[in-house]
Design brief:
The complex is a heterodimer. Chain A is mainly α. In chain A, α1 packs parallel to α2, α1 packs antiparallel against α4 and α1 packs across α5. Chain A is rod-shaped. Chain B is an alpha+beta fold. In chain B, β3 and β4 form a beta hairpin. In chain B, α1 runs antiparallel to α2 and α6 runs antiparallel to α7. The longest helix of chain B has about 40 residues. Classes of the chains: A mainly alpha, B alpha+beta.
């Protein structure tokens, strides 16, 4: 009889652990999705600020029709490579504005231009923060999939490792916005 | 023999005049130290031998002596504050907006930051509000104590006071307003040190317990460079540090068991005292300088 009780207790403890670990995996997945959403929000904010800056630049460079003409598409649920692609296009947009500003000193010195520059810098900091938070959540999740005994739950539930958000090679070089 | 001095505190004294006044106050305290020592012995002897007609007057004499010693000590502090400390602070910080020798940071601010252990009594001194390299800040010495009550088997209640924090509280204004709070606690020991955020910097994660109300805000503040600056600021502090980033401020509690800008008894002359205070003010700016390298959070960017 005592052995039955001990066995029952052990089974209950294992069941509780199983449920808690499964729920933890779900919590981590939700955090990853939330962090991905944070990247998209930050990307959208960067895009909005750059668009406003582009409009200001166009106001000064009226003769330059091809200031920036690429289409940047943002949507919910973008993959890592789609995010990287959109970000790369925004970098080109920013370069285009910088080149224009170099040719038009009155644009560089305008109050609105300076404010938007500061806003873009802030949006880029937020984007960095969002990426790092995403990677932190993914690392925790992937580690739980790898280590024993939570790896048992991962295997049973078919959990698959998530990809880290990796910056493109050229972004790893220092790029300065010079005026 | 002057028992108390209600004259206004003279300012702009020369070093020689100030030394003379401090020496007079020290000499004037000697009789009270003697009275206090004799009274303490008398009180203990009276209590032990249950001679209350000795113990009670001795206690009264001790209390009076202590009052006068503290009055003289307070006068010394006031003289030094007005003639040395204020000018030293002005030299080091550039623009002093307020200096209160007996003031300290508001209890509400310390409570809201929620980075220090529970306390029952708060005290401090040398509250300074200044502008340093264009950044607004304030700081003071801070001491927190817990009062414990014990009841013995006979029903006698005794209270004891234990210091739970002694050091400085520094508060620096940010150039941004944060939507969520971030707190950092320098780790001590192993238990109860779990963070709710892990950064990529292993050294930082080992050094600090990170409690973030929001993960995004934590990573927004804790950039790789800024984590290095925080660690360097902590080295400059040479004490256990805690940070609270909240709204448009960062609060730093440095637990080093020191009380800055005090007269003490061990100075050779006013020049040496001034030099010591300059070093203490430099201790505060040494911590702040590291943090101000983050021009993004603290302004200074064109």
């Amino acid at each position: 009889m005592p052995y039955l009780i001990i066995a029952a207790v052990i089974l209950v403890v294992i069941a509780i652990w199983w449920i808690a670990t499964s729920n933890n995996f779900k919590r981590m997945r939700n955090k990853i999705n939330e962090a991905r959403s944070g990247i998209e929000i930050a990307l959208t904010k960067r895009y909005d600020m750059l668009t406003k800056l582009l409009d200001v630049a166009k106001g000064y460079a009226k003769h330059e029709n091809e200031l920036f003409s690429e289409v940047i598409r943002l949507r919910r649920g973008m993959t890592g490579s789609e995010i990287n692609e959109a970000n790369a296009k925004m970098d080109k947009m920013k370069e285009s504005i910088v080149l224009t500003a170099e040719a038009y000193p009155e644009l560089r010195s305008s109050e609105l231009f300076r404010e938007l520059q500061a806003g873009i810098r802030d949006s880029e900091e937020h984007l960095q923060a969002a990426r790092r938070l995403y990677n932190s959540n993914v690392t925790s999740y992937n580690t739980s999939i790898d280590i024993f005994p939570s790896s048992l739950i991962a295997k049973a539930s078919g959990a698959v490792k998530e990809e880290l958000f990796v910056a493109e090679e050229k972004k790893l070089q220092d790029v300065e916005m010079k005026f | 023999m002057k028992l108390g001095n209600t004259e206004p505190i003279p300012v702009n004294l020369t070093d020689a005049e100030l030394e003379q006044q401090l020496a007079e106050l020290s000499r004037g305290s000697i009789p009270f130290y003697i009275v206090a020592a004799v009274a303490a012995v008398g009180m203990i002897a009276g209590v032990l031998s249950q001679l209350m007609f000795i113990a009670v007057p001795a206690f009264i004499a001790l209390a009076v002596a202590v009052i006068f010693i503290s009055l003289k000590s307070g006068r010394k502090k006031a003289l030094v504050s007005a003639n040395v400390t204020r000018s030293v602070l002005g030299e080091v910080f550039g623009q002093i907006e307020e200096y209160l020798p007996d003031g300290f940071v508001s209890e509400a601010i310390v409570q809201n930051a929620d980075i220090l252990p529970h306390w029952d009594r708060i005290g401090g001194s040398d509250y300074v509000r200044a502008r340093y390299h264009g950044t607004e800040l304030y700081f003071s010495d801070l001491r927190l104590a817990e009062i414990e009550t014990h009841t013995d088997s006979d029903g006698h209640i005794t209270t004891s006071e234990e210091t739970v924090f002694k050091g400085q509280w520094i508060s620096v204004r940010l150039s941004k307003t944060l939507e969520h709070r971030l707190r950092l606690f320098e780790k001590k020991g192993i238990l109860g040190q779990k963070s709710n955020i892990e950064t990529e910097n292993e050294q930082f994660n080992k050094k600090y317990r990170i409690l973030a109300d929001d993960g995004h805000t934590a990573f927004y503040i804790l950039t790789p460079h800024f984590m290095d600056y925080i660690c360097t600021a902590d080295n400059a502090a040479d004490g256990r540090t805690r940070f609270c980033f909240d709204g448009d401020r960062v609060h730093i509690a440095v637990e080093n068991k020191n009380n800055l800008f005090e007269v003490g008894g061990g100075y050779r002359n006013i020049a040496a005292l001034r030099e010591r205070m300059r070093a203490e003010a430099g201790y505060i700016t040494g911590i702040i300088d590291e943090l101000l390298q983050n021009t993004y959070l603290f302004g200074g960017e064109s």
